[in-house]
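User: Here's a structure from my thesis project, written as structure tokens. My advisor, Dr. K., wants to see whether a designed sequence matches the one we expressed. Can you design one independently, without my sequence as a hint?
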């Protein structure tokens, strides 16, 4: 049984998510936005973020897989579930749990860039900047964190701990 140590408390998370929601609301004032959540890790972040966005917002979800283990992204990304509608002319915000090497987001920026959206932004709750391999940055970042494996608030270790309200570091 691993030991879980709180890295970011539920209070810290809620405060920061509200700030990001306000930032997005101000930036897209008067315009509709589409939030695209990357399953499954971003589901909880998306649902909290959406309630802090005072705009006409719709949701969609995608699923991706990367070859290799969860902890070590190998480089190849595959789209397992696409969006239901074209994003042409829309204000699209890709919502992700963690920006790590950046491979997943580089791939998704290419995929969604091809839809010719009006705007294409990235909201990442966490950013492990040390691990970046691709030149990509999020437009909205919750917290920069060190290179530690984290769980909770949607994030998992072998599908467990997604329901924890705090973000925790797993200590083996
Ligand atoms: P890349 O490297 O493509 O990877 O930016 C992003 C994806 O890797 C997963 N990831 C984690 N998942 N705890 C998790 O539960 C972590 O500490 C962690 N680090 C990376 C995550 O799914 C993200 O979408
Ligand atoms: Mg993920």
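Assistant: Designed independently from the structure alone:
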């Amino acid at each position: 049984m691993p030991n879980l140590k709180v890295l970011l408390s539920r209070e810290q998370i809620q405060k920061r998510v509200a700030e990001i929601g306000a930032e997005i609301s101000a930036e897209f004032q008067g315009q509709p936005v589409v939030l695209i959540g990357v399953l499954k890790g971003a589901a909880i972040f998306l649902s909290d973020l959406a309630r802090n966005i005072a705009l006409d917002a719709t949701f969609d979800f995608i699923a991706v897989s990367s070859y290799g283990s969860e902890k070590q992204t190998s480089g190849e990304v595959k789209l397992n579930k696409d969006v239901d509608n074209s994003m042409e002319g829309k204000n699209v915000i890709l919502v992700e749990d963690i920006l790590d090497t950046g491979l997943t987001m580089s791939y998704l920026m290419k995929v969604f860039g091809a839809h010719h959206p009006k705007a294409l932004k990235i909201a990442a709750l966490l950013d492990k900047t040390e691990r970046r391999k691709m030149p990509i940055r999020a437009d909205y970042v919750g917290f920069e964190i060190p290179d530690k494996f984290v769980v909770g608030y949607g994030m998992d270790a072998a599908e467990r701990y997604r329901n924890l309200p705090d973000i925790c570091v797993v200590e083996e």
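When you compare it with your expressed construct, this may help: The chain has a mean pLDDT of 94.
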